[in-house]
TrEMBL record:
Pfam family, one: Exo_endo_phos_2
MF GO annotations: catalytic activity
Keyword Transmembrane helix: yes
Domain Endonuclease/exonuclease/phosphatase intervals: 28-118
Record field: transmembrane: 12-33
Protein name: Endonuclease/exonuclease/phosphatase domain-containing protein
UniProt key word Transmembrane: yes
Keywords: Membrane, Transmembrane, Transmembrane helix
């Protein structure tokens, strides 16, 4: 039995700090929000992603993943920061189901480890 080729990968848009691609009927949003970004820049990036989501077919499967550099107990960090608060509101608004295991760190450094890289499924 021959395995069919995978669906084509196509870039929809690349913005500052994010990229949106399609792979068959799946849309993947990749995000990197550097720690040096201001809260305003972080919010603006999420708003840009919102704008792009409005142009996406409702039947598509959506996955978002990235390094948000945001802290919240919702994903295993004991304290919350401003980015964490903003991202918690954004994930609630977009019905994002986080698939991270809050007990598994995603960032390992000399000084410790944390959960700042998040993955989730969106329903729009």
């Amino acid at each position: 039995m021959e395995i069919p080729p995978p669906p084509p990968l196509r870039m929809l848009v690349a913005g500052q700090g994010y990229i949106i691609i399609t792979w068959g009927n799946t849309i993947v949003i990749g995000v990197y929000a550097p720690p040096r970004w201001t809260t305003e820049k972080f919010e603006n990036t999420l708003q840009e992603i919102d704008t792009q989501l409005r142009n996406i077919d409702d039947s598509a499967q959506l996955i978002i993943a990235g390094d948000f550099n945001a802290k919240s107990p919702m994903w295993g960090i004991y304290r919350i920061d401003e980015r964490g608060r903003i991202l918690m509101e954004w994930t609630a608004e977009h019905n994002v189901y986080l698939i991270n295991n809050e007990r598994v760190s995603t960032c390992y450094r000399w000084g410790g480890e944390s959960v700042v890289d998040l993955s989730g499924q969106l329903w729009i």
